[in-house]
Amino acid sequence: MRVVLVDDEAMVRVGLRMVLTAEPDVEVVGEAGDGAEAVDVVTRTSPDVVLVDIRMPRVDGLEASRRLLALPDPPRVVVLTTFDEDEYLAEALRGGVSGFLLKVAPPEQLVAAVRAVAAGGGLLDPTLTPRVIRAFGAAAPARTRADLVASLTEREKDVLRLVARGLSNAEVAAELYLGEATVKTHVSRLLAKLGLRDRVQAVGVAYESGLVRPGES
Fold first, then answer.
1. How far apart are CA 198 and CA 90, in angstroms?
2. Please, what's the b/e burial string for 190-203 (b: 16 or more CB within 10 A of its CB; e: otherwise)?
3. I want to staple 121 with a disulfide (CB 3.0 to 4.6 A). Which of 27, 116, 134, 137 is the partner?
């Protein structure tokens, strides 16, 4: 997995590089100190995953993420920051990032996030789930999203509800008495129907559409 690091603090990039390059399947192919430089580095190196800080000079991480995801062959973007304000989280998710982690996350969680995102999945810092609920659940349901969710089969809606609660495929399978392969198929189909890239976006749509509401268990 090819990774680019984007952070204005050189020591942070050194630490991230040490953690990631200790893994046999991860290669750090580039670094950037701000969002403007990130686009140039990514264009040259074609990474699978880009780790992006939020607050940086010239171009911040949120704008950098938008520019990176607008590239012809975009990488997967994970926001890695110390700033967990609700507006940052909501804007990042709406912008299409595949993950949002805090810098206090343990190294193994960072590595797991890179692997999950590179494989086409998504990952949120577990401490941020309530913020996702507030960010998307408090908003007025989008009619187009609600219509799309209504087009799902009842079983796909069941799967989406459990995905929105943070359950893994194995946990969804146990909850619904299905095979894990069947759950993977349902997840793939509902993502395709909703025009979504990964589970992170699916969580937002589940709350935004009203399928799941804040406070529901």
1. 16
2. bbeebebbbbbbbb
3. 116
User: Taking the CA atoms of the chain, what radius of gyration do you get in angstroms?
Assistant: 17
Report pTM. 0.64
Contacts of 85 (CB under 8 A, 6+ apart): none
pLDDT band (50, 70, 90) for residue 136: low
pLDDT confidence of residue 140: 45
* CA-closest candidate to residue 160, choices 203, 119, 195, 201: 203
Give the C-alpha separation, 116 to 59, whole Å: 27
Domains (range + CATH), the chain:
2-133 (3.40.50.2300), 139-208 (1.10.10.10)
Q: For residue 68, which amino acid is it?
A: L
For residues 69 and 73, what is the distance between their CA atoms, to the nearest angstrom? 8
In angstroms, rounded to a whole number, what is the distance separating the alpha carbons of residues 29 and 6?
Answer: 12
pLDDT (0 to 100) of residue 204: 80
Beta strands in the chain (DSSP E): 2-6, 27-32, 49-52, 76-81, 99-102, 123-124
How many angstroms separate the Cα of 169 from the Cα of each of 59, 128, 208?
Answer: 37, 20, 22
Find tokens 């909703």 and name the residue: 194
